[in-house]
Request: fold
Amino acid sequence: MKKLLGLLALVSLSGCSGMDAWRAQPPVQRMYVIDCGENHVKDLSRWTPGQNAGKPFVFGDYCYLIKHAKGWMLWDSGIADRVAAMPHGLTAPNGAITATRRRTLVESLKEIGVEPADIRYFAMSHSHADHAGNASLFVKSVLLIQGAEYAAAFGPEPQKYGIAAADFEKLRGAQVEKLNGDYDVFGDGSVVIKSTPGHTPGHQSLLVRLPKRGPVLLTGDVVHLVYSWEHDIVPGFNFDQAASRRSIAAMKQLVKETGAQVWVNHDREQHNLIPKSPNFVE
Reply:
């Protein structure tokens, strides 16, 4: 019903066709791409099995703030803000990854006049610390999360899935919408969560229809690099490799159907070409 009402509203605007109405009053007004840190790794081959053995690499990490006519939505929260105060970053116990952050998410939001309490919907591609490090800031938002991911993050053994339970402790009393598959966030087709399990039990991606650029697919960690997308590369540490391959195939079909641009969260080279907050994309 929610989707039907949204579609009818688009069609009825000013007597225009649905597409004309969309162009006249686009529900998504703009999107800010926020630098949310970096992951410095010693051996890229962990993410590209059989290639790049011993090669050091730097993965980008980005958050996406969407301005919709019905309110703000934040997708991913990046590396924890506390890391910005660490001159040498935060290194994993095994020494394989060092997370760094130049400025906090709170500062980046404030720069464009937004406070955490202003975020109507908060959603993450998944619950790993480089995407969920600041989840606790959004206790007043509606958390949109797949049921399987909720069970992993809030269940008795989050460490089994590589999830830091402390990132979510403050969200236990927050309003939560547990999803079971794809979800039309605002009910008008402009921002749609796509279920893409595999990297984690309830991994999800996001399709955003921008008024000028058109549809953009935010992959999360369906893949970690554009090269991985092009060559269907699945790391061995994914929760479910078979599900990961199915999710890649499904997203490629979605791109074929919609013509969406593919933005790979951790691909720093690709994101160097995308305007960063406080600038925005339309």
The chain is about 25% helix and 25% strand. The chain has one domain: 2-15+28-271.
